[in-house]
Amino acid sequence: MKRRVLRLGIPLVLLSAGTAVAQSAATEAPEISSLRAPASPAFFLLGASPTEIARPQTPADFAFAIANQGAGLKTLPTNLAVEASPYWARSRPTLTWQSDTQRSLKSSLARTFAISVGTAEKGKDSTASTAFGVGFRFMPISGKLSQATIGKLNALELAAGKQAGIYNRYLLEAQKSVMARRSAAIAACNGDRTCIAETSNTFAPQLEAVAQGVLSNPQYAQDIKAAMKDIESFAMAREGLTWEIASGATWDFKNGAWNAAKRGRIGAWTTVGYEGANLGKSVTVSPLVVGRYLREDSTNTLNIFDVGAQLVMSSPNFSLSAELVRRNWSGTNAPDAANRVVGMGEYKLRENAWLFVAFGKDYDEAAADSFISKFGLSLSLKKERYAKPQ
Amino acid sequence: MSEIFFPASAQFSIDSDDPVSVRITVGDGQPGGSSLIWQDDIQNFPPRRWPFRLTDSGMAILGELLRCTTKVFDRSATSNSTSITITIKNGDKVQEYPFSAVVSDGDSCLYNINIAFV
Fold first, then answer.
1. Which of A47, A85, A125, A347 is the most exposed place for a label (fewest CB within 10 A)?
2. Whole-prediction pTM value?
3. What ipTM does the predicted assembly reach?
4. Of the candidates A297, A287, A378, A285, which has an alpha carbon nearest to the alpha carbon of residue A30?
């Protein structure tokens, strides 16, 4: 159950105080997790929101995903969006969830390292270009499985054992006649092991066919449907100390020409946070510290260095967050350092509908709309409101 | 929510009259539970714990069939792979039978593996 990286929230801004000007419908509430390193640095730097991201499960799938989009790599693919984690590209039959509750530095690096590769079309006609981005992320420290998740996993394993038992109850009955014929044939072998092996091979396809047939037994389907009511859909959540590092870069290829390549953007993030600190029964507190570097070669030559912190208090019904980021520029005619300060509150009106209010100031105090003041309704369709690192 | 059905058959050659036991490991960081049919009895895991002793005398189970059913749910945030490894031990002899299948987000795989003792 991979974590979704696409944002499906639909914010509807109803009223903007302060500026007394209605915000456009495209204006969004400040993202609570905006200071986090992006899950897919390549797509973030491309400014792309691909509707579908290929997540190949094997190295061969990864190569196919790229070759399939790029006419056999003769041309630069125009709508490529691939994300892959080398560790998970191989089958891990001995990796139990119990052995992944806590991770060493080495296992955390291996299990969280992911590469993202993407392209996006920019501009039109004479200014048309294809942007190519590549990025990676990893977590030297990725917390541990929460006690709540461990409890859910234990309950799910019990339910899975019960369902396997239901299947076996029907299987035992369905295979009775084939097993009787098999037993008679084995007995006729009189202990000859070659005969026993050949007889076992002969009956194997018949037993498998009967096993498949159990699935279409209506009574079995009904029993499993009833048992599935106990099954909870959830993704494994990790908590505790986390440290994440991500980086990426993009290049623009004017008219898709290789020799017209120019670097577009480069970015790097490092975040240290803590997930799952409790304040009372249902309120969690998540502090986060971030350092990031951004450079946009296509529009200016300034380097941007951000250092910031964020504190989020969240419960099933409300959330409060505050963030402070200090931005430093370097390069020719670099402006003075500036701060961005934003406070935000959200209240749950009903399932997937949240009322939000945000106040603060952006970096350039003299710029229009630098006074951040938003009040509105956020209709969030995404499964996880607060994406936690995995 | 849909389910992949994964049937397979294998053989284990009994080498000695030592005890024979079985263990099923659910891999790729996913949760799962198993049930065995052994000599017409059904055993569920959990609540039972591995390993499960099939016999004290290996030679006494020649020709018998162990039917293993394991249901694995995809709950990992990083992978859609499910896998199981059935390990049979007969004295010093240890043999592993790995199986794997990729499922869609949140789905499950039902493994049904027969192991004949020959």
1. A125
2. 0.78
3. 0.96
4. A378
